[in-house]
Design goal:
146 residues; mainly alpha; 6 helices; 80% helix; transmembrane helix; membrane; DUF3429 domain-containing protein
Length: 146
Amino acid sequence: MREALPTPARILGPAGLIPFAGMALLALASPEWRPDALRGLIAYGAAIASFLGAVHWGLALHPAPGEEGAAWGRMGLGVLPALAAWIALLMPGFRPGLITLAVILVATALVETLAARRGLVPAPYLRLRWGLSLGAAACLLLGAAA
């Protein structure tokens, strides 16, 4: 039997794609609103990258039995997306930062996949994360193309 995600995660996770899609579509559809939409998209992408890192701090602060030794790796993974997102925000122009954020989201999911193979990340979370990360990365890349 597959583990199930809590209902809030199944609802709020996909709902988190709405700002990504909205800002990307606005950037594509309206030259007048494009700068504001791209600013919103890059800011939201950076916030989400930081949020993804915070998940690992939560896992490290309350480890499952036998996972106490993973604290350094988890907290390191928790810090890296936020630092990389901060760098993306500092890049000149929107395009480099948006592309960097797309890479950050997918790279974090890849690292989490490796952690899941060691039993450190719940499988239902990982399935959700891949769908959300690919959707968010696609929106960030659409914004970069605008």
